[in-house]
UniProtKB/TrEMBL annotation:
Descriptive protein name: DUF4102 domain-containing protein
Tyr recombinase domain boundaries: 226-397
A GO molecular-function descriptor: DNA binding
UniProt keywords, alphabetically: DNA integration, DNA recombination, DNA-binding
Family recorded in the similarity comment: Belongs to the 'phage' integrase family.
Record keyword Transport present: no
Species whose genome carries this gene: Alcanivorax sediminis
Pfam families from the UniProt entry: Arm-DNA-bind_3, Phage_int_M, Phage_integrase
Listed PROSITE patterns: TYR_RECOMBINASE (PS51898)
Matches recorded under SUPFAM superfamilies: DNA breaking-rejoining enzymes
Taxonomic superkingdom: Bacteria
GO biological processes: DNA integration; DNA recombination
Length: 413
């Protein structure tokens, strides 16, 4: 049994200090018996920090059990905790092992109660490193907060089952099928992260195949995929002749998009430092491409002429600058087409180009696919992609421009 010490008063405890070596003069931790319970000590560090330690024997092993810091734990409180420890030991319980078990149990309970909203935030903190564009994080956050959070946001991820997923998706499964598909996929990812992180076990209730599709129906059977409306290529020459009569910058942006077969966003975000007029090449950086890879676009003479004649706005790096400055919105091109009474989208002209190339030219399919910056996993097309086929693509785009001009050429004749 530890030696019984004199019981110190609260005032005496406050005055206790650290120890100093008589030989080196260096300060070190001091352990002061305070009495009341055999083995109860106050530890004082050189910084003046004080804490309680209960030294005793548990099952033949010497133990030093921390009882908390002073003054958060008072002298009376420390003596009470030490007596509790002594009673546990006498009952055959190791206070340290019991404390560790309680801590593990608390952690396990916290794991079980992690909410879906908290899991989504933690998952996105990891997932955001993969996103090329910060707006993708916002898109994930918006869809989950709009559709998932009201139903399962406050639920523990360990408790989410298929009926809860159905409750989230059912209101939009038939009316907003594409959105519902995104929501389901994002919920599935969050729950998959929660599973591998140890917050839940079992099957993923947001899985589509033989799961959500059985409860709500297959998305492909509910609503056909909506494709961008394209102008038939036979109508393009007449459309281009009318488009060139319009002086607006939005008309030049659309004309440039058609002549390059580029995506609307790539054209609207184009900047002057991406253009090499002497080489007639437009190099779109990877961070603006859907595939995440830089893309070189050979420019036909008509496209180069647009660039040479388009007015430059002071303070704007964009080639096609909106009237109030900054980048054009996609709505501007949509409004232009609406004014022209054309039932097609700006993106749809890429399909117009593809149909024309496939049906009216003898170029290999890979040439037009590269012109469209389509990514293919096929090994043969990957080999084509490495060379980029710039020369063949330049010829193809020149023929495309000639076809687009054919109405004007006939009129002049």
């Amino acid at each position: 049994m530890p030696k019984k010490a004199r019981e110190l008063t609260a005032t005496e405890v406050k005055r206790l200090t650290h120890s100093v070596s008589k030989t080196t003069g260096k300060a070190y931790n001091a352990l002061h018996p305070v009495g009341g319970v055999a083995g109860l000590l106050m530890q004082v560090t050189p910084t003046g920090a004080k804490s309680w330690i209960y030294r005793t024997t548990v099952g033949g092993k010497r133990r030093s059990i921390g009882l908390g810091g002073f003054p958060d734990v008072s002298l009376a409180g420390a003596r009470e905790k030490a007596r509790d420890c002594r009673e546990q030991i006498e009952s055959g319980i190791d206070p340290i092992e019991q404390r560790q078990a309680a801590r593990q149990s608390l952690i396990a309970e916290q794991f079980k109660t992690l909410t879906f909203d908290d899991a989504a935030r933690q998952f996105l903190a990891v997932k955001s490193r993969e996103f090329k564009n910060p707006k993708h994080i916002q898109q994930w956050t918006n869809t989950l907060s709009t559709y998932a959070s009201p139903v399962i946001g406050k639920m523990a991820v360990s408790e989410i089952e298929l009926p809860h997923i159905v409750q989230v998706l059912e209101p939009i499964w038939h009316t907003k099928t594409e959105t519902a598909g995104r929501v389901r996929g994002r919920i599935e990812k969050v729950l998959a992260w929660a599973t591998v992180s140890g917050f839940r076990t079992g099957e993923n209730p947001a899985r589509l195949k033989d799961n959500v599709d059985l409860a709500l129906g297959k998305p492909s059977k509910i609503k056909k995929a909506k494709h961008f409306t394209a102008l038939p290529y036979a109508e393009l020459p007449s459309f281009m002749a009318e488009l060139r009569q319009r002086p607006a910058v939005s008309a030049r942006a659309l004309e440039f998009a058609i002549l390059t077969a580029a995506r609307s966003g790539e054209v609207r975000g184009a900047t002057w430092d991406e253009i090499d007029l002497d080489a007639a090449v437009w190099t779109i950086p990877a961070d603006r491409m859907k595939a995440g890879k830089p893309h070189k676009v050979p420019l036909c003479p008509d496209a180069v002429e647009i660039l040479r004649e388009i007015p430059r706005f002071e303070g704007s790096d964009f080639i096609f600058t909106a009237p109030r400055g900054g980048k054009f919105s996609d709505v501007a091109l949509t409004a232009l087409l609406k004014r022209m009474d054309i039932k097609a989208t700006a993106h749809g002209f890429r399909s117009t180009f593809k149909d024309w190339a496939r049906e009216q030219t003898s170029y290999a399919d890979e040439v037009s696919e590269l012109a469209l910056a389509h990514v293919n996993s096929d090994a043969t097309r990957a080999a084509y992609a490495r060379s980029e086929l710039i020369d063949k693509r330049r010829q193809l785009m020149a023929e495309w421009a000639a076809f687009a001009n054919s109405k004007e050429q006939v009129d002049r004749a």
